[in-house]
């Protein structure tokens, strides 16, 4: 992966840190495909939960299938499939994709912040903060740029969703 | 003559100002997202889904369909100019489109792709108008056992034929079926797997699942993929229209591509990508110009574009007449209709003739709009490719949040979207496909209901699925398909291992 080189401005430690983090992530060798077996193991846990939950709900009789029948049937099918997945992924020798944990965390944080802030402070601050946090993983945009982008998008959202579409959003809450 | 009368009626429906507006919004948004590399039509469809709840069902369907085929037009632009497919199905267009652009014939390639998409779309529309009523009248005799078997076949086809491991695909479908059981059981009224959370009593919201798995999940993948920045080719707009000889050479390929595309589009599980790949391979065998394929042959642009666009139209045939979606996008179409209280199936053509024929006619209107958007206005999309992605993706994430929030005015849905988004990313990392999960999720409740009904009618005898002729045949086909895809996956893996060994 190529990132454009940027001359570091003084005091922009954040960007330097991010660029370094990106490079070390890119330099790390890709994880092995057996990571996929973790996915299979997760599905196996899920299927057990559904089988037990389904039995507790009651499977009924063939003529009148109970609430739990379908979860149990699908749970058994998934359990068998996930065992097959675990076995085949453990034998897989190819490399898996390189994960991008920075973007993974930033996008998650952005959604979480939107959820918390829109509930307590209203839409405008929520959009602003969500944009700023989501754009953090991109080192090519300065912090001032991220702030301006956040301001523009929150104004745009206000115009579109409250001004134009008249949706029941509150721009600011409890202020 | 009946078809013409119905189509004329549909045209009147589609020409209503409101439907024209939403058709335009749909195709515009579809092209917009299609142009952006890495984001398929799923993300925009799930983003407009909440908006469609406020619309008339016909307007909603016309808009969603517009996004779906608009993305196919847009997808080829990035393929031709940057050698990066904007949508998965336009990857075949890269093979000849990009070499054409490098020869300085980008304009002609873009024009050809637009006109071929239009031709393919029209072929697909005619096939849909003729075939859908016939299939619907056949399906009118279906009972619960047949429906169960058709859904099962659709699910297996959609998962096992997808690229990647068939076992993982089927596992995703089953996980989707399980996810569909969350909430209150409609038959008994008992709560299932809600963990005491009141928001889950109505089940997991379709918008949340789709936005999380496709919107958020794809976005996380695309950040790194697009960070390197777009490289541009200059387009000579004077050289935009093909010569008479070029027109002649693309005419038959468009017809063939459209025919192959409409066949694969109507089959569950194959869809546009397979359609364009097969059409390209067939054309390469048939063409007199085959030596030039891969080096900038104009037929190589026309054929896959015609095929993938006709496949987007015929994909609606099984979706609307049987209620069995062939792809995740079509599953969202079913979800959108059910939210409006319309159950897709053979009765849809009779009970909601306006909706069906309005949609068919909107294909004509939407494709004409796309022709205008993609030929005189091509410069707009080329400029869009120059906008750095760092400005795009934070905007998209906010639109996802707003869309999810607007469904129920409920923050819980955003937290759930976050969970599905992370799950979608991890699934891609571990080579699981999220599309079958969504299809299973949409069809799960329907499948369970048909299973219960069939078992009740047969007094608890499960052999009913095999003894009734139509369902028996469908089950046998399903098992055959499953066996075939497992064998071919094993063979592919053995082949790969052999290749690795010889490389060492």
From TrEMBL, chain A:
Keyword match Protein transport: no
Domain of life: Bacteria
InterPro entries referenced in this protein's UniProt entry, alphabetically: DUF1468 (IPR009936)
Pfam short name (any one): TctB
Membrane-crossing segments per the record: 33-53, 65-87, 107-135, 147-165
Domain DUF1468: 39-169
Keywords: Membrane, Transmembrane, Transmembrane helix
Protein name: DUF1468 domain-containing protein
Organism of origin: Pseudooceanicola spongiae
Organism placement in taxonomy: Bacteria, Pseudomonadati, Pseudomonadota, Alphaproteobacteria, Rhodobacterales
UniProtKB/TrEMBL annotation, chain B:
Keyword Iron-sulfur: no
Domain of life: Bacteria
Record bears the keyword rRNA processing: no
Keywords for this protein: Membrane, Transmembrane, Transmembrane helix
Segments traversing the membrane: 19-39, 108-135, 147-164, 170-191, 203-223, 322-343, 355-379, 391-408, 466-487
Residue span, DUF112 domain: 20-438
Protein name: Tripartite tricarboxylate transporter permease
Organism (species): Pseudooceanicola spongiae
Source species taxonomy: Bacteria, Pseudomonadati, Pseudomonadota, Alphaproteobacteria, Rhodobacterales
């Amino acid at each position: 992966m190529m990132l454009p080189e940027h001359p570091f401005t003084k005091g922009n430690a954040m960007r330097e840190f991010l660029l370094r983090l990106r490079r070390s992530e890119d330099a790390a060798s890709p994880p092995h495909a057996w990571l996929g077996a973790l996915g299979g193991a997760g599905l196996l846990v899920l299927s057990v939960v559904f089988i037990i939950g389904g039995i507790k709900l009651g499977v009924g009789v063939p003529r009148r299938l109970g609430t739990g029948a379908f979860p149990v049937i699908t749970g058994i099918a998934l359990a068998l499939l996930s065992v097959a997945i675990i076995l085949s992924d453990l034998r897989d020798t190819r490399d898996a994709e390189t994960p991008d944990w920075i973007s993974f965390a930033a996008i998650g944080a952005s959604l979480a912040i939107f959820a918390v802030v829109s509930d307590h402070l209203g839409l405008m601050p929520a959009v602003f903060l969500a944009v700023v946090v989501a754009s953090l993983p991109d080192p090519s945009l300065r912090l001032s740029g991220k702030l301006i982008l956040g301001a523009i998008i929150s104004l745009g959202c206000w115009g579109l969703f409250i001004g134009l579409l008249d949706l029941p959003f509150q721009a600011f809450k409890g202020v | 003559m009946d078809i013409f009368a119905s189509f004329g009626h549909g045209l009147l429906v589609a020409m209503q100002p409101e439907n024209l507006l939403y058709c335009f919004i749909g195709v515009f948004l579809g092209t917009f997202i299609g142009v952006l590399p890495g984001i398929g039509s799923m993300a925009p469809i799930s983003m407009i889904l909440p908006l469609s709840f406020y619309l008339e069902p016909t307007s909603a369907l016309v808009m969603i369909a517009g996004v779906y085929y608009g993305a196919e037009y847009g997808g080829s632009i990035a393929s031709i100019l940057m050698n990066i497919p904007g949508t998965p199905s336009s990857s075949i267009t890269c093979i000849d489109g990009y070499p054409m652009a490098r020869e300085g014939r980008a304009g002609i390639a873009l024009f050809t792709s637009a006109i071929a998409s239009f031709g393919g779309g029209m072929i697909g529309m005619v096939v849909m108008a003729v075939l859908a009523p016939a299939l619907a009248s056949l399906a009118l005799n279906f009972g619960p056992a047949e429906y169960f078997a058709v859904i099962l076949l659709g699910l297996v086809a959609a998962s096992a034929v997808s690229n990647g491991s068939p076992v993982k695909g089927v596992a995703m479908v089953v996980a989707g079926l399980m996810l569909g059981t969350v909430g209150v059981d409609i038959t008994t009224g008992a709560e299932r797997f809600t963990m005491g959370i009141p928001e889950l009593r109505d089940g997991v919201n379709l918008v949340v699942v789709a936005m999380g798995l496709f919107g958020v999940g794809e976005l996380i993948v695309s950040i790194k993929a697009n960070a390197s920045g777009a490289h541009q080719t200059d387009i000579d707009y004077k050289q935009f229209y093909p010569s008479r000889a070029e027109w002649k050479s693309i005419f038959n390929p468009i017809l063939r591509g459209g025919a192959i595309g409409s066949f694969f589009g109507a089959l569950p599980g194959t869809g546009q990508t397979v359609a364009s790949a097969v059409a390209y391979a067939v054309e390469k065998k048939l063409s007199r110009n085959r030596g030039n394929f891969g080096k900038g042959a104009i037929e190589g642009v026309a054929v896959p574009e015609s095929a993938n666009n006709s496949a987007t139209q015929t994909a609606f045939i099984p979706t609307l007449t049987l209620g069995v979606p062939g792809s995740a996008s079509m599953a969202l179409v079913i979800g959108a209709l059910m939210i409006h209280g319309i159950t897709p199936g053979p009765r849809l053509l009779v009970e909601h003739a306006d909706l069906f024929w309005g949609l068919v006619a909107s294909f004509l209107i939407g494709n004409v709009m796309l022709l205008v958007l993609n030929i005189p206005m091509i410069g707009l999309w080329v400029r869009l490719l120059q906008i750095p992605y760092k400005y795009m993706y934070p905007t998209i994430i906010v639109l996802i949040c707003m869309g999810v929030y607007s469904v129920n005015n409920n923050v819980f849905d955003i937290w759930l979207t976050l969970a599905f988004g992370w799950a979608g990313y991890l699934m891609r990392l571990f080579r699981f496909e999220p599309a079958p999960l969504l299809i299973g999720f949409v069809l799960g409740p329907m499948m369970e209901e048909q299973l219960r009904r069939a078992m009740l009618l047969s007094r608890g005898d499960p052999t009913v699925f095999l003894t009734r002729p139509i369902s028996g045949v469908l089950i046998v086909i399903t098992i055959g398909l499953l066996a075939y895809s497992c064998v071919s996956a094993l063979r592919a893996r053995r082949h790969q291992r052999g290749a690795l060994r010889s490389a060492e």
